[in-house]
Amino acid sequence: MTDTDLIPAPLTARTGGDAPGRPSLDERTTLDAGPGTEATARWLRSVLGAATGLPLADGAGPHAVRLRISPETAREHGPEGYRLSTEDPEAAVTIDGGGPAGLFWGAQTLRQLLGPDAFRRAPVRPGAEWDLPRVTVADRPRFGWRGLLLDVSRHFTAKEDVLRLLDLMAAHKLNVLHLHLTDDQGWRIEIERYPRLTGVGAWRSRSKQGHRASPLWDDTPHGGFYTRDDIREIVAYAAERHVTVVPEIDLPGHSQAAIAAYPWLGNADVVDTAALTVWDTWGVNPNVLAPTEEVLRFYEGVLEEVLELFPSTFVHVGGDECPKDQWKESPAAQARIAELGVGDEDGLQSWFIRHFDRWLADRGRRLIGWDEILEGGLAEGAAVSSWRGYRGGIAAAEAGHDVVMCPEQQVYLDHRQDGGPDEPVPIGFVRTLSDVYRFEPVPPGLSEAAARHVLGTQANVWTEVMENRDRVDYQVFPRLAAFAEVAWSALPAPGDRDTEGFLRRMETHYRRLDALGVAYRPPAGPTPGQRRPGLLGRPIDGPPPIV
């Protein structure tokens, strides 16, 4: 390991040259935790203490890890910025955070500087000294929204694995977990006033194996959901790691699981909604919500409970892939279009989104949705997750709306990492580790005023082909490390990323992932245990156009 093998790369890292000796942590090391730093001190004791075997007792002095919230650092680098130094004669390590989050990110950098063994759950060198380079790091994030979407609807992720993912996100300085909680294939959050949403909507009879064109099926019933207490635990665990959890409740499309639970939510005048079950395959589903006041009241009730559990400013309402065929055929929907004066079916979808934009704003929250919410007119104050390339994000930002860039062509991590025949489920199109590293969230040519509306960026993990934790690990890592650097690290100049240097630093980072037990895709390709011969072969879906 070299002195600056940090991922994501910091703003600056000045090494101490050839000064004699190296600072280290050992049995004498204490934690000197200033006001407001107690949470990071607890994290250091629980994580670094477990990995190193060091007690890290309270105390000041030349052997201490000194933690401070620094107004000067806040002025220079903002609340998520920090300054770390191992060259302070009054402490072994000093971390000054611009705020509690910045201090915590500095602690993550300290962990990396101690070497890959500092990422283990138990000490491999009890009682040993842990050497540090002589270095001063000054750092801050490029974007305030550094996100990861986890789809828990297509395949349910156990609470314990969500908590583990939060730890992995924190290790990469990511700060938004977007939980995709509802879809056609499953409803994953307990709503007390509507118990059938989980009693019926959380369970399907079977699942497609592979992508939607696959002829293979897993006939094992699949399901699960998070109780209200589970959600409270996830949100609290995330908050301790300075990660915000943004919930997504899909509407008006991607709603078959809800309609299966409460058939009156659907367009019963054109389809037998009472016969619908939770969907067992993938793709775009034709069954969408009926445009009635009763449906609005239902989802207001859902969102009231969601707001109780999630303090996030933003609430995601989906809004994507909403086929309009049922509304076109439904006399009730057509009468609603005329009554509301919204013109057509696109206007009807806009009516849905605008209603919940106002409803959330009245409660001090903000609506965010996929870029289809631009169709029929974008609600004032709504933000956009731009997934169909850059185009929707550009249009929204130029119109003064905030944007999170997550184009499928660059940062959909369900797509394969290599073009070879050994990929476990070779769907989509190839995006390698280097491809993700070269992703630029701010499109070239975006005006300066519009660029200020780019809140940040997000990688999306859709789980149709990820039925367990190892499959998620394989698809997400190591590409999440590349994405984390894109989201965090400043660019010296537009398009100026040192891919060769990043890949060199990844040689150390793979050892950190090994220590964390991450089943990532190795650089040389999948191991025999990661291959799934029944699903190998030509990709099922061709690449979409780059837009």
Automatic annotation (TrEMBL):
<dbReference type="Pfam" id="PF00728">
    <property type="entry name" value="Glyco_hydro_20"/>
</dbReference>
<keyword id="KW-0326">Glycosidase</keyword>
<protein>
    <recommendedName>
        <fullName>beta-N-acetylhexosaminidase</fullName>
        <ecNumber>3.2.1.52</ecNumber>
    </recommendedName>
</protein>
<dbReference type="InterPro" id="IPR029018">
    <property type="entry name" value="Hex-like_dom2"/>
</dbReference>
<feature type="region of interest" description="Disordered">
    <location>
        <begin position="1"/>
        <end position="36"/>
    </location>
</feature>
<dbReference type="Pfam" id="PF02838">
    <property type="entry name" value="Glyco_hydro_20b"/>
</dbReference>
<feature type="domain" description="Beta-hexosaminidase bacterial type N-terminal">
    <location>
        <begin position="4"/>
        <end position="139"/>
    </location>
</feature>
<dbReference type="InterPro" id="IPR015882">
    <property type="entry name" value="HEX_bac_N"/>
</dbReference>
<comment type="similarity">
    <text>Belongs to the glycosyl hydrolase 20 family.</text>
</comment>
<dbReference type="InterPro" id="IPR015883">
    <property type="entry name" value="Glyco_hydro_20_cat"/>
</dbReference>
<dbReference type="InterPro" id="IPR025705">
    <property type="entry name" value="Beta_hexosaminidase_sua/sub"/>
</dbReference>
<feature type="region of interest" description="Disordered">
    <location>
        <begin position="519"/>
        <end position="547"/>
    </location>
</feature>
<keyword id="KW-0378">Hydrolase</keyword>
<feature type="domain" description="Glycoside hydrolase family 20 catalytic">
    <location>
        <begin position="143"/>
        <end position="490"/>
    </location>
</feature>
<dbReference type="InterPro" id="IPR017853">
    <property type="entry name" value="GH"/>
</dbReference>
